[in-house]
């Protein structure tokens, strides 16, 4: 009997197994390939925690795999955190299937270890969990979310005592403790009634919300008089069936943005995300209903948040009067420029802007213009949060952080990307430019004219199951070893292999060290400020290929982008077939 079959039999023979999971197992009992995928491994835990398809099995997200993860987290906290029993753990959840149930399962395992849990009594955005950890002085935080993944997914995300996503070293230590739990079906728990009776479970939320909204007042660049005036800005907002509705509307009202039309069909939390193909503001189809509403209301700006409200998308009218969705790179560059141009230069002396290695270099050019140093990190806001934490010791100050995948942070009272902050800031920015007779589209093209036309694209290759995982590893290995000297006719200046930690110049063989953590990423630096980067997704069964170019005109940049994207698409197709 193969290993996965042994584990499957253990689950099937478990007395008291969750009845719904038992029924699902029985329904797939004659599908060996499906069973193997459900049991051939444990669901991976990393710096993003766990994210997976809901269902029975060790490679699925369910109450037992959640309990195992929490059990490991508890052992880690007791070894590494001071006063963990009284400080406790903050727990929040989004609108997905089983989210609240998994939050309660988290509290039940924490309680069995004698650790208090502060659980939000309603669904809340991920950035509020980050804020809550810091506000409550908790030892850690847990967010039940799969962000913008399809409806069949959910996730378990861990935050450290600083309110940031756990670092690779923290994740490795937690994983080590998780793996010590041999039987996920027998993790001790305490039921809700006893938790509440023993003061091991506190339900809350409003106090944290109020404190967070108060902090948001500090990020505005409007003077005190203008803050109090009602703003002439027509806004359309969609929370895409997620968690952001109440907080975004309240935060806008604080600054007297009252002309806010919410897409009512998408205002109610819905785990099926029934009005969109994908609840992801990166996908332009997610804005279809918002654009229809914007046309009727003649909106100045459209904003949309993903289900757990850590990503923000925006759309504005172009020079043809049509609504166009901004990329994450474009919106980030606009917000960075607005933040720096409205800040006293004396306050920028030690200021730092942080972006990821797959984020447009336009941000660096803008920061340079204001005398602000740019820091590059690996992909993932956990690295941005970690860098902010280091500033406490270095004396540097955080001024803005962003990544191309629609994640932004303006104020470090939160240590993760925050779509609520970004929504308010984007609307304020649109108001600033409207007063000058410009749209955000106009402002964006002013940046291009000043710094160059930076354009980016991304190819995503979906490869599922064990075979898909092996194929992704194979393609990454080819990228490392093929010694490419040009891509799409553009010369390769250097290759950065973040797995080996080396930067190699192909034409000379010169090697330098990369001062970033090790990760399975390969980036090709090309002539004319162009670049290509390959990395497996940390949250989905996908291989992602990022492409960035710069040109002196929009036409030149589009041609370069098309050529490089086509070349990389051919590369992925060729080696996916092998």
UniProtKB/TrEMBL annotation:
CDD domains: PGM2. It holds the Pfam family PGM_PMM_III. GO terms for biological process: glucose metabolic process; purine ribonucleoside salvage. Residues 44-182, 211-317, 328-451 form the Alpha-D-phosphohexomutase alpha/beta/alpha domain. It comes from the Bacteria. Residues 510-555 form the Alpha-D-phosphohexomutase C-terminal domain. GO terms for molecular function: magnesium ion binding; phosphoglucomutase activity; phosphopentomutase activity. It is an enzyme of class 5 (isomerase). It catalyses: alpha-D-glucose 1-phosphate = alpha-D-glucose 6-phosphate. Its cofactor is Mg(2+). Its EC number is 5.4.2.2. Keywords: Carbohydrate metabolism, Glucose metabolism, Isomerase, Magnesium, Metal-binding, Phosphoprotein. PANTHER family: PHOSPHOGLUCOMUTASE 2B-RELATED (PTHR45745:SF1), PHOSPHOMANNOMUTASE 45A (PTHR45745). Belongs to the phosphohexose mutase family. This is phosphoglucomutase (alpha-D-glucose-1,6-bisphosphate-dependent). It comes from Lentibacillus cibarius.
């Amino acid at each position: 009997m193969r290993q996965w079959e042994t584990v499957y039999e253990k689950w099937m023979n478990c007395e008291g197994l969750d009845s719904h999971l038992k029924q699902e197992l029985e329904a797939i009992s004659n599908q060996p390939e499906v069973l193997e995928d459900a049991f051939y491994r444990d669901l991976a835990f990393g710096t993003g925690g766990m994210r997976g398809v809901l269902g029975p099995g060790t490679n699925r997200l369910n109450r037992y795999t959640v309990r195992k993860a929490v059990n490991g987290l508890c052992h880690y906290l007791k070894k590494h955190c001071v006063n963990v029993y009284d400080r406790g753990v903050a727990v929040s959840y989004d609108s997905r299937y089983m989210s609240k149930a998994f939050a309660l399962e988290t509290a039940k395992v924490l309680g069995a270890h004698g650790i208090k849990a502060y659980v939000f009594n309603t669904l809340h955005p991920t950035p509020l969990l980050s804020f809550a950890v810091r506000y409550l002085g908790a030892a850690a935080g847990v967010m039940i979310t799969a962000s913008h993944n399809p409806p069949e997914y959910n996730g378990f995300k861990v935050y450290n005592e600083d309110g940031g996503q756990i670092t690779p070293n923290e994740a490795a230590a937690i994983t080590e403790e998780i793996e010590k739990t041999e039987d996920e079906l027998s993790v001790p728990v305490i039921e809700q009634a006893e938790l509440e009776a023993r003061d091991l479970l506190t339900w809350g939320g409003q106090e944290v919300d109020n404190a967070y909204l108060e902090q948001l007042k500090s990020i505005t660049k409007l003077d005190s008089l203008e803050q109090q005036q009602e703003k002439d800005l027509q806004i359309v907002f969609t929370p895409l069936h997620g968690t952001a509705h109440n907080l975004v509307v309240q935060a806008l009202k604080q600054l007297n943005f009252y002309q806010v039309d919410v897409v009512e069909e998408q205002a109610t939390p819905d785990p099926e995300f029934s009005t969109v193909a994908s609840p992801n503001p990166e996908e332009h189809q997610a804005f279809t209903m918002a654009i229809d509403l914007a046309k009727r209301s003649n909106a100045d700006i459209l904003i949309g948040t993903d289900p757990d409200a850590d990503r923000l998308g925006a759309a504005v009218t172009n020079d043809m009067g049509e609504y166009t969705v901004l990329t994450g790179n474009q919106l980030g560059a606009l917000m960075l420029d607005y933040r720096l141009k409205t800040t006293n230069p004396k306050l920028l002396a030690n200021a730092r802007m942080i972006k990821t290695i797959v984020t447009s270099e336009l941000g660096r050019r803008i920061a340079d213009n204001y005398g602000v140093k740019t820091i590059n990190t690996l992909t993932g806001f956990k690295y941005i949060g970690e860098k902010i934490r280091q500033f406490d010791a270095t004396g540097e100050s955080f001024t803005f952080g962003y990544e191309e995948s629609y994640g932004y942070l303006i104020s470090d009272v939160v240590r993760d990307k925050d779509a609520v902050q970004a929504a308010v800031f984007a609307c304020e920015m649109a108001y600033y430019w409207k007063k000058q007779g410009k749209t955000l589209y106009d402002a964006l093209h002013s940046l291009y004219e000043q710094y160059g036309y930076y354009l980016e694209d991304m190819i995503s290759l979906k490869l599922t199951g064990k075979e898909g995982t092996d194929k992704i590893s194979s393609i990454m290995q080819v990228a490392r070893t093929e010694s490419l000297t040009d891509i799409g006719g553009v010369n390769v200046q250097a290759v950065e292999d973040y797995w080996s930690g080396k930067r190699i110049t192909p034409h000379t063989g010169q090697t330098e060290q990369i001062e970033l953590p090790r990760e399975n990423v390969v980036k090709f630096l090309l002539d004319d400020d162009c670049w290509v980067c390959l990395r497996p997704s940390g949250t989905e069964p996908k291989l992602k290929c990022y492409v960035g170019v710069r040109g002196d005109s929009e036409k030149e940049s589009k041609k370069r982008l098309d050529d490089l994207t086509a070349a990389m698409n051919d590369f992925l197709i060729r080696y996916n077939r092998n």
